[in-house]
Every structure is written in C-alpha cells, then in structure tokens.
Amino acid sequence: MRALVKSRAERGLWLEDVPVPEIGINDVLIRVHRTGICGTDVHIYNWDEWAQQTIPVPMAIGHEFVGEIAAIGSNVNDFKVGDLVSGEGHVVCGRCRNCLAGRRHLCAATLGVGVNRPGAFAEYISLPMTNIWRHNPGMSEEIAAIFDPFGNAVHTALTFPVLGEDVLITGAGPIGLMTIPIVRHAGARHVVVTDLNPFRLELARSMGATLAIDPTKTPVAEAQKQLGMQEGFDVGLEMSGSRAGFVEMIENMCHGGKIAMLGIPAKPMEIDWRKVIFNMITIKGIYGREMYETWYKMSVLVDSGVDISPVITHRYSHKEFEKGFAAMMSGETGKVILDWTD
Ligand code: NAD
Ligand code: ZN
C-alpha cells in the first residue's frame, strides 16, 4: 500500500510502498478515504527539534482521518466491515489509575497515532477497537476526516459554560476557527477572535465571530469598548500558542474569568501571575479529546446543524501532498484535506 513516510531523518516526507499493517484480535483495519493535515504533521515534515526528539524513523505519519472498516480482529464484535469510522489519535494504556477510572484522556502512558506508532497517511491503518468512532448516518466524509481537531475545539469550547457569556478566542488557526460555531451554538453572546493573519480573520468572520481583529491594530480592550462591554471576557479560549495572545487574554478577562488553554507555547513563557491571582482567574490546560464524551458531543453537534465546513479551504489528492503541505506552511489556509481514494 501507499503511505506518506518519514523515512529519513531530514526535512520532507516520502510517498512509499509499505506493507499493509497486520491486525491483532482486538484491532480494526481501516481503508483510509480522507485525511487532514495537522500542525503536528508540518512539524514532522520540517523535522524541527521536537520532531527529531520524538519521531522514530521510518514512520508513516498522520492522525486525522476517515475511512471504511476493511477487516476486524476475531475479538471485535461492535464494528463490521463497511462501517464509516474515524480514529481517536491517542492510544491509551488501559491499565493505569486514570484509565481504570474511565478518565482515559488523562492516561500518562498515551501513544500518539502517526507520532509514536504508524499513522493514517496511508491506504490502510490498524487501530485497537477501543480507538474507533463510528459515524452517524449522513455524516460528510470531509467533516469526519477532521473529527480529531474538531474534538480539540469541542473539548476546549465546552470546558466552561458559555451560555450568555462573552468569549475571547486568541488564534484563528483551524482549531480556533472551529470553536466559533461551537460556542455560538452553546449560547455565547459576543465572540471576539484575534489573529495576525488577515486570511484567517476573514474566515473567522464567515464562521460567526462578532468581531475578528488583529490585536496589533485593534487592541482587545478597544474591541470591548466597541461592544459596550464593561468588565472583561467571561471565558477565554487560548488557541494561538503565542505568549502575546495569552498575555492579551489575561489582560482582558473579567474578575473570576475562566481560561481553557489548548495552544502549545514553543517554550516556557512568562506572564504577570499577579493578574491571575488578584483577578481570581481559572486556567485549565486542555489536551486531546475526552474519550469518548467529546466524540459523542461532536456527532451530536454536527447532527444539530453546527457547520464547521468553511474551515476546510484546500483539497488535494494524496499524490499532491507536497502542495497540501506548502499550502499549510503559507498560513493562507483553514484545514487542508488529502484524498486517499484515487
Ligand atoms: P495554528 O498554528 O494553525 O494556529 C495558531 C494561530 O494563532 C495562527 O493563525 C497564528 O497566526 C495565530 N497567532 C499567532 N500569534 C498570535 C497572537 N499574538 N494573537 C492572536 N493570534 C496569534 O494552530 P491550530 O492547528 O489551529 O492549533 C492551535 C494551537 O493548539 C496550536 O498552538 C497547536 O499547537 C495547539 N494544539 C494543541 C492540542 C492539544 O491537545 N493541547 C492539539 C492540537 C493543537
Ligand atoms: Zn493509562
């Protein structure tokens, strides 16, 4: 089968012929239809310091996908050949205290699909049955392909109640963009989105932001004035991974405000902790998706009419993966999808 492999310890990815993965008795083999390119895949492509320390070479990468079940292990009863499924990208140990307590998203022995074990940028992927999510009838394959990052958005957006609240989203990358229709659906009042990239700010407007601003031109405090807000944002969703974005957020929260933090800073960062303390701000780190409450909510949100489709801006055949990665690196994209059926 064809797979996109990090086969050399240098910049780039290579489309190669590799064996179809074998399945154990508890595994499911999936014929991949479509995949999404994640920022993580770009790090691996670029072979940055994180990738060099993390990725064993050779490794088929990728973790955002949708496909059809092609075969099941002898112990698998809940799934059948032909089911349309996606996979949870974190394979947990199943034996630690958190796993046994049903808090699988808190497993400390998690392995990443396409990071620590073979990934989904391939014609076939094998995963444990406990990592499979079957889609509801009528689900669009493109939306299903990006359930993994959609899950990051849902997990973050629903961490704190937003009904009737004013929400600040820093960073309008694909995940920040997807949080906009979710918090809208969940009843937020003002949804202010910041980014430095005009293409992404325009997408944020089209996906339902009250205001989408470049904070270097319109400070968030100025946006608050425009909207007649008095006391700051109730809920902050940090989606930029930038110190400047986070600092701007802390400055603009109400007393008692709540921040869910998904963006990953490239290095340790300093903030004015006195603001957190005196303003009694809650900050919660968010990683991955809850297994499987977030997945349940994703399916229900899509069925309820939440439309994240504008976030998909580019589509290529897997044979044109170089174009897909170049588009991602340009920053002039939402989500980029690769087709593995041709
Ligand atoms: P992305 O890099 O595409 O988006 C980040 C956006 O932030 C970009 O559009 C960038 O222009 C913008 N930005 C940069 N500086 C800013 C500033 N000062 N103010 C406002 N915006 C600014 O990433 P993504 O794929 O949308 O993911 C969002 C973040 O979440 C990234 O940091 C990513 O590493 C992280 N992430 C975390 C998890 C997790 O489980 N915690 C999972 C996936 C991604
Ligand atoms: Zn565990």
UniProtKB/TrEMBL annotation:
Subcellular location field: Cytoplasm
Gene3D superfamilies: Medium-chain alcohol dehydrogenases, catalytic domain, NAD(P)-binding Rossmann-like Domain
Organism superkingdom: Bacteria
Site feature: Important for catalytic activity for the proton relay mechanism but does not participate directly in the coordination of zinc atom: 148
GO molecular function annotations of the record: L-threonine 3-dehydrogenase activity; zinc ion binding
Span of domain Alcohol dehydrogenase-like N-terminal: 26-133
GO cellular component: a single term: cytoplasm
Entry binding sites for Zn(2+) 2: 93, 96, 99, 107
Cofactor list: Zn(2+)
Family: Belongs to the zinc-containing alcohol dehydrogenase family.
Protein name listed in UniProt: L-threonine 3-dehydrogenase
Gene symbol of the encoding locus: tdh
